[in-house]
Structure prediction request, 463 residues.
Amino acid sequence: MTGGPDLVVAGAGGGLAGALRAAELGLSVLVVEASEHFRRGNNTSMSTAMFPGAGSRWQKAAGVEDSPDRFAADIAAKTGGRADARLARTLAEVSGPLVEWLADSAGLPLSLVTDFNYPGHSVHRCHSVPGRHGSSVIDHLARRVREHPGIDLLVPAALVDVTTTGGPGAATTVRGALVRYPDGTQEEIPAGAVLLATNGFGADRALVRRHLPEIAEALYQGGERSRGDALRIGGGLGAATGYLDAYQGHGAVAAGAGTLVGWATIIHGGIMVDLDGRRFGDETRGYSEYAAELAARPGSTGWIVLDETIFEQCRPFQDFRDTVESGVLVWADDAEGLAEATGLPAGALARELEAGAAAARGERPDEHGRTHWERPLAAPYAAVRVVPALFHTQGGLLVDGDAAVVDPGDRPIPGLYAAGGAAAGISGHGAGGYLPGNGLLPAFGLAYLAAGAIARRTTTREN
Prediction:
């Protein structure tokens, strides 16, 4: 890469997909990653590897009628119309081609998830890999990146700033990256463009307290390198920011194990109760908003109650299997035994189990408005104590349809791109607008789009 690469990618999560796409389009690429253990420590590797793809071939084969229009409508409905409409439309349109590219070019063994549907998706739209865990996605993509002759991987090294040209009266143009090594030395690397794929600011407690006070004291279950680097770098260039109060939370992290129990337990018919043994809402609205709601309950904790059928239905998830293997599930033959095993008030718990079963059978409306019940829970029961968590932030640098970072006047900053948590996403404000998969979609979709835009710009400049 004499003279520097065409593209420097900061972050080896969704940025790996951007690197592969850029190399496929003929660009020379350098991926800079700060963590030596990124294959187990970034947000993609911690995810359930759900990729929304509207209109994919797997949907067509399964008879699922979907389209970018329908996906965009679902985003608007879940966010109350407060998402970035342009970006939502852009990502809805690229979602189908993206999942097919991930399978056909990047080689991920994707398939459509049809055994249950996540809150907010009106049809089966999420695609995943065997085991439904992001670590296998990162392992696979990292191997592809290391094998590609057009990509260099610099690990561990942190992109701490970008270098620019331009001055008074001239547009600022990004011309390279400033990289810091573990020994404290720094190097300027010239480049045609820089893609910030450094995630958000979930690991910076001060920023979380400033922008996300409702979840600031909850467990942080995300990458430790998510420290707001993109906000700092982009802010230094006058970039616009938005949706800094948006985040993905989760209400189902196993207490004592730190593993993800998973919301499939709820979708398949489980319930959540607080320490008083009472349900406190319609659990099927979404796991993200339930994080803050659980955090507000006594002790900031609760219990998910499931049964043997749900237990078996959740086995496809590696996270759930890890939870089971940790030994934190308790079992009981009836409601009284479950109360004894959990320490919950027996009368309240029994009433909730009976009321939920009656609502599931259609005998009476649920007092919390829950209408989705696959079936009534049946003894023997299992339960697991859960705590709320912040997974990742959903606000950041504003980008256009090419993933180019823009200024407050919506003018692109030449040479600077952002993807994933480094960019403002499509979850609107707060936690309630998060749709499952809409963390990975901006991470991979914007990186994919940035690669295409940089390739077109490079070709035009060379010609």
In short: Residues 440-462 form the longest helix (23 residues).
